[in-house]
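Sync notes, pocket subgroup
Present: LS, DG
LS reminded everyone that the earlier model was apo-only. Rerun requested with nicotinamide-adenine-dinucleotide included. Inputs:
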Amino acid sequence: MSRPDTPSTLADWQAMAAGLTLETRAFVDDTFVDAVSAETFTTINPATGETLAEVASCDVADADLAVGHARAAFDGGAWSRLAPGKRKRVLLRLADLMEANKHELALLDTLDMGKTVSSSLGDMAGAIACFRYQAECIDKLYGEVAPTGEEALALVLREPMGVVASIVPWNFPLMMTAWKVAPALAAGNSVILKPSEKSPLSALRLAQLAREAGLPRGVFQVLPGFGHTVGQALALSMGVDCLAFTGSTGVGKQLMQYAGQSNLKRLYLECGGKSPNIVFADCKNLDKVAKHAAAAIFHNQGEVCIAGSRLLVENPVREAFIDKVVAAAERMQPGDPLDPGSFMGAIVDEAQYRRILGYIQMGREEGARLRVGGEALPGPGLFIPPTVFDGVTPEMAIGREEIFGPVLSVFGFDSEEEAVAMANDSVYGLAAGLWSQDIDRIMRVTRRLHSGQVFVNNWAGGDQTMPFGGVKQSGNGRDKSHHSLEEYSELKAVWMSLAT
Ligand code: NAD
């Protein structure tokens, strides 16, 4: 099958998909292997319902083996003691290989979890930029010399931690992987990646590229499988020094228990959200804001941790503004994920599809006013259109709980005070947005929002320089920026006595 080098049409992407060769085995100690149990699980394309592959289903035996190899690699020092500038060169080579293969990597994510190829290509740009940024940072971070008298030299050294396990979700499979793996590797650790069982394919392709880039044996390993098997085994392992997790708050809470039951491993959690997007009546261009507010929730089918799922609108402009949001939503219909013109793709799997439709039903029963959407589209494939509920109140489940789908809950407010109170009335604190022309109000409200990140007159703005993470039950970790490198290293205090 001939493949276009740069696919740009639906037919190009279909042709590329038909010619793919999938790696489905685990990557352990530089080798692709079946799971020790020889068990596999099925990964499906949610846009068609077709089986994509049978993938190695790792469990505790595979985790034990990988942890042993990771420890041996760390102790051997081929990576952990390599000069940072040399680690940088290998990671930059990996980024170049990702760039050269970005269409294939994007396609794997699209086939595996239903997101559009346009969105997947955006993820690849983010993933590659993350590897480059972290690689470039690592030989520019200095240790410290503490202030002492002449009787001592006191050093604060930054050292790799050892074995890092990364457990990631399915909504941005390779980008979430990059956010965890790039800084952990750059800092000199051995990394074991467990991709989601719903989207394992791009992680296994990344392993092939990592080997080609020259990462030493055992430094990067990939264990596909389920959370309750291999995920739990890594979280309970006495040989894992740090666990970096992105996923739901419920699983995050379990992982805290596992860390306590085992070796008090360092634990970073990036969990769920129910992010408020606040629109003040003083905005100049409400048409533009409405489009952004719709994209803030409907991008990636609403399967986004920082989705702007609670829209808070100042009452004098609320009716007119919601009409504009509904009009924008109607233009964001789901379509074939392989069609570069599709704005939304398919929902990741049957369980998530049922969960979203269940919340839509709940919204109706709770008395919220359905303005658009609400019915699944006919199959094959799992498609739910943009759905907007108005008149949502804080006690309704659709106004409080993370739905992780294309469902927007709209609230009205009468004062700045009320808007801030409503925005902060959540167990989550991942992201918040506000739209206003009044700089005094912007600064007042920004400081009062209890949230890891605040977007002012945009939604989801940022680049590699910005730390990404939440407060409250959205977790404690920070991905991206040089702060994420700090998370994957330990401080060692060295006090040297000197003769005076
Ligand atoms: P999930 O919590 O179900 O699964 C995430 C990962 O954890 C998967 O790899 C899964 O296999 C694994 N896992 C599940 N149970 C486990 C266990 N007992 N032990 C160890 N590992 C286990 O989440 P999901 O459905 O994959 O992703 C959606 C969630 O992720 C949403 O809540 C979303 O908000 C969150 N998320 C957060 C961020 C962020 O940066 N804060 C980014 C993306 C997604």
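DG: Residues 167-171, 176, 194, 196-197, 226-228, 231-232, 235, 246-248, 251, 254, 270-273, 305, 402, 404, 430, 470, 474-475 surround nicotinamide-adenine-dinucleotide (CB under 6 Å).
LS: The chain is about 40% helix and 20% strand.
Action: DG to write up.
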